[in-house]
Amino acid sequence: ALVAAGKQDEALREFETVAAAIPRDRLASIPQVWNPLLQLRIASLLKRPAADRDWSASDGRIDTLQQSADISDTQLALLRADVLVRKGEAAAAGALLETAVKANPQNLQLLAALATLALRENDLDRARATLARVPRDQAPDFGLLMIEAQLAARSSPEESAPQLTAIEQRVDALPPEQAARLLSVLASVHLAAGRPAEADRLWT
Q1: Is residue 195 left, alpha or beta, with left meaning phi > 0 and alpha meaning psi from -120 to 50?
Q2: pTM above 0.90, yes or no
Q3: What is d(CA 58, CA 95) in angstroms, rounded to the nearest whole number?
Q4: 74 or 57: which leads in pLDDT
């Protein structure tokens, strides 16, 4: 409720109190506590001048999670990469994710995170190359298709048309709610590219 009201500092104090009351060996099994706690700590640090940011508490929390069997290697890699990006160390985050992908090349979460990071850095070729590593027999994944849609949005109108068609052909494999969200995004890209008829068709 405090977070929803925009009172992040008060929310952080509440989560700190809750976390302190939980035995360290149990905290990792309760993501409803440690995940928002970690995110709020990071948000609090980012409000400060760069020179005044002490990341040791956030890094220490992740080190604690690493000792738990309740946290997978994928979760740890994603958490560490997220913190590195927030620190402004995108290259280090990319290297960490790349190592994780090499160890688990079929993990869609890791591939999506690596492609998203490339998009964030405006490295479209690297984002496309990352998506090309997704196994061909893999069922369509909503997150990866959304990344493809973002890539199409950054392409020229001529290039985006076939990209959007290829994405649309895989939409039916998604749950209805995800399919509707993705189709709406595709429609917006068509509209921005000067194809209002295609946008109208997809929204309809």
Answers
A1: beta
A2: no
A3: 20
A4: 74
